[in-house]
Amino acid sequence: MRRPLIIAIAVLIFLGLLLWLISTLGTLYAGLSNLHPWLAQAITSLIVVLMLAALGVVAYYGWLFLRPRHRAQPPPLPKTTSEAAVAQLQSLDQQLSHIQDEVARQALVQRAKTVTHAFEQQRLHLVIVGSGSAGKTSLANALMGEMAGETAVTKGTTTQQQDYRIAIPAIDGEIILSDSPGLLDVGAADQNTRELATQADLLLYVVDNDLHRAQYEILMQLLAVGKRTLLVLNKIDHYTDDEVALLVSRLRQRIGQQMEGEDVVAIAAHPKDEPTPYIQPLIDRIIAILRAEGRDLIANNILLQSQRLSIEARQLLTQQRQQKAEAIIDRYQWIGAGVLAATPLPVVDMLATAAVNTQMVVELGQVYGISVSIEDARTLAISLAKTMGSLGLVKGALKLLTVGLQANLATAVAGKLLQGVSAAYLTRIAGKSFVDYFENQQDWGDGGMQAVLEKHYQLNRRDQIVQQFIQQAIASVRS
After folding, report:
1. Sequence-separated contacts (24+) of 291-296 with Cβ below 8 Å
2. What is the reported pLDDT for 468?
3. Is the pTM above the cut of 0.85?
4. Which distant-in-sequence residues (6+ apart) come within 8 Å of 187 by Cβ?
5. What is the assigned CATH class of domain 83-308?
6. Sign of the C-alpha dihedral, residues 94, 95, 99, 102?
7. From CA 122, how far away is CA 124, in angstroms rounded?
8. Cβ–Cβ under 8 Å, residues 44 and 28
9. Model confidence over 262-275: pLDDT tens digits?
10. In sequence order, what are the residues at sequence separation of 6 or more whose Cβ sits closer than 8 angstroms to the Cβ of residue 203?
11. Is residue 244 classed exposed, middle or buried when 0-12, 13-18 and 19+ CB atoms within 10 A define those classes?
């Protein structure tokens, strides 16, 4: 309703102005005609042309103002887990394209291709994990229907990951079964097993007794990252029926609301006195889960894997940007030192430092993909310089560096260097502060610019850092 009302008022105003202009032009033409008819026509025509041009400009900008706004529509939110996984993989590709370390980038690219291929092939990955000799390999053998690896009582028999292709009744598609080294084993095997566990679409967590604390903590960690898990109580042939029932009850109490009670399954993968494994309850549960959740399990896992790769890519990009930012700060701190050392002023001239900081801000913004104009950079630099002064950081830096310089050089020489070195020191604190600003999407955070400056001043006033900085400054001057 507001837009038609505005248009109606504008039309009425326009008509009123048009009538007034016509009347004014008539009066003007009549007056000029008394002097000379051609002069009256020429001047009136010129005024009409200028008025039409002005009306055209007004009409154009009025149309811009009143026209319906066509806002760019944001991309639709994913409706399914599969769509979210596709979107995450596309975002990951963009991130990887910005990584300049070719070795690291290629390593991530290969891992991303593996994740993408698994998603495209809709390949299900089942991983068996557990501690010690809980019977993981025996379970893998039973699921395979044949002996697939060595089984023994000795803890940690499986020392390397073993992958098998299996066929489960009533389930289409390729299924990969991985048998892992034992959790809680000493060395790299334990870490590799945990990494493998996070890559599973469905995890079979095998125990042969009640959960002890370390096993429970690992299980909770896996559940916390979204791993669909079955808790498999193996070797039930070692217990009486009452003992098995008690163990299953305890395990269900341990997992509480973290898992469904049906996801605790009791089996005997390699019975002592029977040639045939008792694993049908586990197979039934696996089939039920894969029928109901198979595609979602794959999509959820792909989403998790791509998110983890994205985090690694962001960390590499952050390191890459920090290295570039450090080089920029290092360059401008000595430029600032040269500018300030060349002036005869007895104290650090913060305006001159701000002038140097202006270009530093522009270049730091470019590192983080943010375009900062010279005017905005100057405003930021001056504002930061004033904040430094109000916090007493200038006097603090002078005092801090005076002691350090006099400890390394003669007093007279130290006095001449003080101004330039102080400028470099303050430029460094400013640069570090601007890095925080850009990393935080051009936001100083809850504490504002003052809190960021104080943080970096405190970080850079430690004795070891000050002494390293002074040694670097002396070496720069002597060279």
Report:
1. 291/170, 291/171, 293/228, 294/124, 294/171, 294/173, 295/82, 295/122, 296/81
2. 67
3. no
4. none
5. alpha beta
6. negative
7. 6
8. yes
9. 999 999 998 987 88
10. 126, 127, 129, 197, 222, 227, 228, 229, 230
11. middle
